[in-house]
Structures are given as C-alpha cells and as structure tokens.
C-alpha cells in the first residue's frame, strides 16, 4: 500500500527522482516518514527497479529543511532511544544515497539547519538562493551532529574551519556558503527550484557511467594515496572507454556533434 509520504516522491520522464525531505508541516522539520519512503525509493534504484539518472533533494515548504523536530525529541518517553532510531534511519538513507552512484542535486531554499545542512553536504551540486541560510544548530540544543556532518563538513571546508562552524553554531549566508564550497551556485530565491530541476535533468541526460565513476573516485580519494588514486583513475577511464556511452562520446567529439548518451543506453 502506498503511504502518503511515498506519494510525494516522483520519477519524471527525464529520469530525475525527486525526494522531498520536509514539508510545511511542523515548521519544515525533517520528515521521518519521507526519509523512510526515500530510502525505499533509493533501494529500488540500487536494485534496478527504478532507473534514475539524477536525484533531487528538496523541501516542499518555505525551507529546504529546518532541522529535526525538537518538540518530538522532547516528547519522547526515552529520548536517547528515540534519537538513536531517528539518526540510524537518516544514516541509512544517506548510505543508500551513496550506493545508488547517481548524481545528487539539492534545491536549498530558505533554511538548511541541523540535519538539513547535513543533507546539503551530501549533494554533488547544491543550488541555493540569495536568501538561503545554513546552520549546524546542534550546539544550540546541547547535542552533537548527525547525518554525517562531522564527516562531510571537514572534507569540504577543512577540519579547523568545520570545528569552528559547528562549535560556534555559525549561520552561513548564501555567499559564505558559496565561498566555502558548500553551495555550488546561488540564484534568485524564486529560481532555486527550477534551476535545481534543470541541473538534475541535464545530469540525467548525460553520461551516467561517467558520473558514477566521478562520484566513486572523488568519494574514495580521501582514503587513498596519490598512487592508488591514479591507479583507480586508470582502471576507470579504460573501462568507460569501451562502454556504449564512452564510444558515443568519443565518436561524437570526432564528428563535431553533440553526443546522444540517452540514445545509446
């Protein structure tokens, strides 16, 4: 039976799988049901049940995601057990997000706080608006990060700067987030959703094997030596050169035409 959360998840004709992470309910807090439904959809991608060429993370309210639902934290009979369950479910969502090997775009309208900021950090391309704001938020309620923030933020801005941002609970405006490399592009607030959608559609139409390899190489690079990374690059580029997309890309270049990656899948 389809759940209400599942009905908000869409896969369009371009191959863009849209996964909302919050709604206008509860002040655009992270929606647990959406995270569970999103995980199920991502697992279908990894199993080949859904064929997605790009994933779009978004919110359906005025904010991308204002963080966890603190009121529910406080109301839980056992806060520790409740928060552990929420964190584990969010972390499984993120693990499967990486396992899809599909490019991830985030449409970051309004606030991305707490777990919302964590999710932005896992996007390959995060599009923000001039009014976008990001904030760790955890120290403000006496908690520590989840959602992989303590892993992703140091890899984006450096360990010292990550500690500073999280411990002082900095509010990062759009320009600061762009300068730090957290946001890839900043557009007018009214254009965030359409720009992110167009970016995801462009990726979905592109060379999916190439994008999957780029994600794999970049994500693995932090744990490899230069020699090991170059060995991985050699194996990857050689393998892609004999795929249908690799052949099409080279042939199109030589013929001075635009490659048709969609047509050779």
From TrEMBL:
Molecular function GO terms recorded: enoyl-CoA hydratase activity; isomerase activity
InterPro entries: ClpP/crotonase-like_dom_sf, Enoyl-CoA_hyd/isom_CS, Enoyl-CoA_hydra/iso
Source superkingdom: Bacteria
Entry keyword annotation includes Transcription: no
Pfam families: ECH_1
Keyword DNA repair among record annotations: no
GO biological process: fatty acid metabolic process
Catalytic reactions of this protein: a (3S)-3-hydroxyacyl-CoA = a (2E)-enoyl-CoA + H2O; a 4-saturated-(3S)-3-hydroxyacyl-CoA = a (3E)-enoyl-CoA + H2O
Keywords: Fatty acid metabolism, Isomerase, Lipid metabolism
Function, as annotated: Could possibly oxidize fatty acids using specific components.
Family: Belongs to the enoyl-CoA hydratase/isomerase family.
This protein's name: Putative enoyl-CoA hydratase/isomerase
């Amino acid at each position: 039976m389809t759940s209400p959360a599942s009905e908000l998840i869409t896969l369009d004709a371009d191959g863009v799988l849209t996964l909302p992470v919050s709604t206008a309910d509860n002040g655009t807090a992270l929606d647990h049901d959406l995270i569970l439904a999103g995980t199920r959809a991502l697992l279908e991608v990894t199993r080949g049940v859904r064929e997605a060429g790009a994933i779009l993370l978004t919110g359906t309210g005025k904010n991308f995601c204002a963080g966890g639902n603190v009121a529910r934290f406080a109301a839980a009979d056992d806060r520790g057990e409740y928060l552990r369950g929420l964190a584990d479910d969010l972390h499984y969502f993120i693990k499967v997000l990486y396992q899809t090997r599909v490019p991830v775009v985030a449409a970051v309208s309004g606030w991305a706080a707490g777990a919302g900021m964590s999710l932005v950090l896992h996007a390959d391309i995060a599009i923000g608006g001039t009014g976008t704001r990001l904030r760790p938020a955890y120290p403000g309620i006496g908690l520590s990060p989840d959602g992989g923030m303590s892993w992703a933020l140091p890899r984006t801005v450096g360990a010292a700067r990550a500690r500073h941002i999280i411990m002082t609970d900095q509010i990062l405006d759009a320009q600061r987030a762009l300068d730090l490399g957290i946001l890839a592009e900043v557009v007018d607030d009214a254009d965030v959703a359409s720009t992110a959608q167009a970016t995801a559609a462009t990726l979905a139409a592109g060379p999916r094997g190439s994008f999957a390899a780029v994600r794999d190489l970049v994500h693995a690079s932090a744990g490899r030596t230069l020699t090991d990374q170059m060995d991985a690059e050699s194996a990857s580029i050689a393998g892609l050169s004999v795929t249908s997309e690799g052949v099409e890309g080279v042939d199109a270049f030589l013929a001075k035409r635009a490659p048709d990656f969609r047509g050779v899948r």
